[in-house]
Amino acid sequence: MIITFVHHSCFVVETKERTMVFDYIQGGKVNGYHFAGVLPEFDRNKPLYVFASHAHQDHFDLEILKWAGDYPNIRYILSKDIRLSDRYLERNGIAASVKEKITFAPPLKTFEVDDMNIKTLRSTDAGVAFLIGAEGKYFYHAGDLNLWKWDGAGDLVNGKETRAYKHEIHKLADYEIDVAFVPLDSRQKKYAAEGLMYFMEHVDAKAVFPMHMWQDYSPIAALKAKISNGAFARRLVEISGENEAYEL
User: Fold this and answer.
1) Across all residues in the chain, what is the average pLDDT?
2) What are phi and psi of 15, to 5 degrees?
3) How far apart are CA 134 and CA 18, in angstroms?
4) Rounded to an integer, what is the distance from CA 172 to the centroid of its chain?
5) Helix, strand or coil, per DSSP, at residue 93
6) Which helix (H) or strand (E) holds 102?
7) Which residues pair with 93 in a beta bridge?
8) Which residues have CB under 8 Å from 39's CB, separation 6+?
C-alpha cells in the first residue's frame, strides 16, 4: 500500500482495492498557516472513501463534498458533529443530494460501510477517532483524540485529560493495527509526545505516523533519539515535510 502525508492531519491510504482520504483541508483555510500538500491522483476504478474526524477548520473542508461530481464511486464517513443542512450545502454550491453518499458517525459506535468495519472512539477534543478494518488490515486515524496536557492548566485539568485519553486508547488493546495516524503537537511543549508514546506503548501498531504537527516536524527526530529500543523506534515514521509518500 502507499501512504501519502498531504499536510497537517491529512493522509491518503491507497491499497489494492480502495483509496481512503483522512481529514483533508485546502492549504489556505487555517489562519496563520499555508499548507502546501497536494492530493495524489486517485485511481477512478477504485472506491474512494473520505473521512473527516470533526468539524474544526483544520480537519474538515466543504471542498471534499464537491469531489462527488468527479468520483461517482465515492462515500463519505463524517463525524456527527459536522452539520450539513440542505440550505447550507446549496448556499455553498453543493447539491443536497450529496448527503445520500454520507454516513454520519457518532462516537462509540461500530458500523459497516460497504465491506469496511468501522469503530469510533470519543475524542478528547471534538468528534471521533476512526478504527477501520478492511482487506484484513486495521487503520487508525485519531483526529483530535490526544492527551491534551498543557503548561499552566493545573493537575486537576491535566489529570482529567490523562484519564479520558487512556480510557479511549485502552479500547484498542485487542487490535493489531497496521497503520496509525496519531497527534504529535509541539504547541504542548514538554507534554507534546505523551499521548503518542502512550499509544505506542499500549497499542500493537506496526507503523505510526505522527500528525497535527503544524508544519513543525522537529519533535519526531527528537523523540526517536530518546527511544533506546531500536525496534520500537522504527515503528515511528519520520516525516520531514508535506507531500511525502511511503510504501508499506
Assistant:
1) 96
2) -110, -175
3) 9
4) 15
5) coil
6) strand 102-105
7) none
8) 4, 6, 12, 21, 24
Q: Which CATH number fits domain 2-247: 3.60.15.10, 3.30.70.360, 3.30.930.10, 3.40.50.170?
A: 3.60.15.10
Dist CA 28 CA 129 (whole Å): 24
- Looking only at the bridges linking them, the beta strands covering 74-79 and 10-14 are unpaired
What is the Cα–Cα distance from 201 to 121, expressed in whole angstroms? 18
Name the residue ranges covered by the structural domains of the chain: 2-247
Looking at the chain, which runs of residues are DSSP E strands?
2-7, 10-14, 19-22, 48-52, 74-79, 102-105, 110-113, 116-122, 128-134, 137-141, 176-183, 204-211, 244-247
The one-letter amino acid at 143: G
Segment 20-48, tens digit of pLDDT:
999 999 988 898 999 999 999 888 889 99
* Amino acid in the structure at residue 166: K
User: How is residue 39 written as a grid cell?
Assistant: 492530493
Q: What is the pTM of this model?
A: 0.97
Q: Taking phi first (over 0 means left), then psi (-120 to 50 degrees means alpha), and beta for anything else, what does residue 108 get?
A: left
SS3 state of residue 227: coil
- Amino acid symbol at 82: I
What pLDDT, in 10s, does the model give residues 76-107? Answer: 999 999 999 999 999 999 999 999 999 999 99
* Residues 200-218: tens digit of each pLDDT: 999 999 999 999 999 999 9
Residue of 171, 114, 117, 177 lying closest to 145 (CA atoms): 171
Cα 19–Cα 22–Cα 110 angle in degrees, nearest 5? 90
Cβ distance 50 to 118 under 8 Å?
no
The letter for the amino acid at 80 is K
